[in-house]
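Weekly puzzle thread! Below is a chain. First person to post its structure in token form gets bragging rights.
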Amino acid sequence: MIKAVLFDLDGTLADTAPDLGYAVNCMRKARGLDAVPLEKTRPVTSMGARGLLGAGFGIGPDHADYEAMRVEFLDIYERNVCRETTLFPGMAELLVELEKRAILWGIVTNKAERFTHPLLEGLGLHKRAACIVGGDTTPHLKPHPASLLLASERIALPPNQCIYVGDDERDMLAGRAAGMQVVVAVYGYLGHGKSPKEWDADFWADDPRDVLDFLPR
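Winning reply:
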């Protein structure tokens, strides 16, 4: 029986794209460049600095200026981590219902702890989450299962009693590798890869509240 639901953060629990796009545009403004529309940066939000600098400046990790710009981007984002970020529609209701059913919920993200904790505090969720595992909490990022296994350990439940909800194929790979059931957040960012319907998942949620259809009553 499922006793816990673990969520990815960016693109699954919360719509963080506006604040990450804002950081990119602060950098562009400082360089005398026009802002890029949110529609351009939103799809790559789950890729973090690499995806956003790629969308905003057309550069990757092999570019000579990339590392300095990555540090600049993250510093700006840290100061604006919960400026316009909101929960996805229906997520607040889902969390309340999980709590009513005594089903634990937590966060497992590739986002570094320096951003994850302040963001969840800004959203008023920090004390409600049963566990919070960031991208630097373990030595490995998803799709490696280490962070999900740590979350399972922290909530004292075996992985087969947890489901993991995410909006990127690496979330499905990590969840599978950890021995959890996996749910695609179809309402999320999804990236530029193959269709999420082709991902190896157990369920596809068009709305956060659809996760309830996958859970015991």
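Puzzle host: Confirmed. Bonus trivia for everyone else. The radius of gyration is 17 Å.
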